[in-house]
Amino acid sequence: MDKAVELARQSDVAVVVVGIEEGEFRDRAMLALPGRQEELINRVAATGKPVVVVLVAGSAVTMSGWLDNVPAVLDVWYPGEQGGNAAADILFGDYSPAGRLPITFPVAEGQVPLVYNHKPTGRGDDYGDLTGQPLFPFGYGLSYTSFEYSDLAFDSQRISPTASTVVRFKVRNTGALAGDEVVQLYIHDEVASVARPVTELKGFERIHLQPGEVKEASFAITPETLSMLDKDLKRVVEPGDFRIMIGSSSRDIRLRGILAVGK
């Protein structure tokens, strides 16, 4: 570790590769990085040099002991034979990352299970000693550019339970680099006869945009999109209002609209 810290002092940038080894019958009670890896990150960061943490793991990792001390984290999961080349492309800026989290990362183990699509609870999300918000929400991910959403519109904003419609919107690359945005469609049934998740992912699409470029994106909203299992376990579409949400993650909703489903 002393060698690593000294090497970081002599370098322009430090890349610290950390992670966990997982497998069958190797569950973890603690989600922090095992061993002295957090100490390594903090000691390298204390040199004052820019630090990129490359995280190799197949599940959520808590980061409260070191995240505020580093400017960048690249989660490569278990990337396979070409993972080194892919990570190098991102680290050197030859490729703008566009991955999105398929799980929720908690701040602490006491929040688990922590999912974006939980049922209504009738209670607050916060704890007495911690916020109820995740460290990183489902669908989260950054890139080297930025995106702006606008002009939400429905082909038809009032439909029957057996009909379909399309929601359309525009996405603009507002940064200086080309990149991919993963646009995500979520819905919320405003009133239902049985408890439904507070938010449900119903679609996503990856869009490549040059700097300043604008593209129209769309999602078809069909009876399957809106359906649920009723108290008799029959799949139905109940009349009522559905909140349609377009965003960059489950916690970063950019556009909202109401779709009315009539009798």
CATH class of the largest domain: Mainly Beta
Mean pLDDT: 95
What is the SS-derived class?
Answer: mainly beta
* Number of helical stretches of at least 4 residues: 4
Low-confidence stretches: none
Helix content: 10-25%
Roughly what fraction of the amino acids lie in strands? 25-35%
Which outline best applies? Answer: globular
Question: In sequence order, what are the helices and strands, one letter per element?
Answer: HEHEEHEEEEEEHEEEE
Superfamily (CATH H level) name of the largest domain: Immunoglobulins
Please summarize what this structure is.
With 263 residues, the protein is mainly β. The chain has helices spanning 2-9, 37-45, 83-91, 223-226; strands spanning 14-19, 51-56, 72-75, 147-154, 158-159, 165-173, 179-189, 200-209, 214-221, 228-229, 235-236, 240-249, 252-261. It has a five-stranded mixed β-sheet with strand order 5-13-12-7-8, with no helix packed on it. It has a three-stranded parallel β-sheet with strand order 1-2-3, covered by helices on one side.
Q: What do these coordinates show?
A:
The protein is mostly beta strands. It has 2 domains: 2-95, Glycoside hydrolase family 3 C-terminal domain (Rossmann fold, 3-Layer(aba) Sandwich), CATH 3.40.50.1700; 147-261, Immunoglobulin-like. 11% of the residues lie in helices and 33% in strands. A hairpin with a 2-residue loop joins strand 12 and strand 13 (252-261). The longest helix has 9 residues, at 37-45. It is globular, with a radius of gyration of 22 Å. The model has no long low-confidence stretch (mean pLDDT 95).
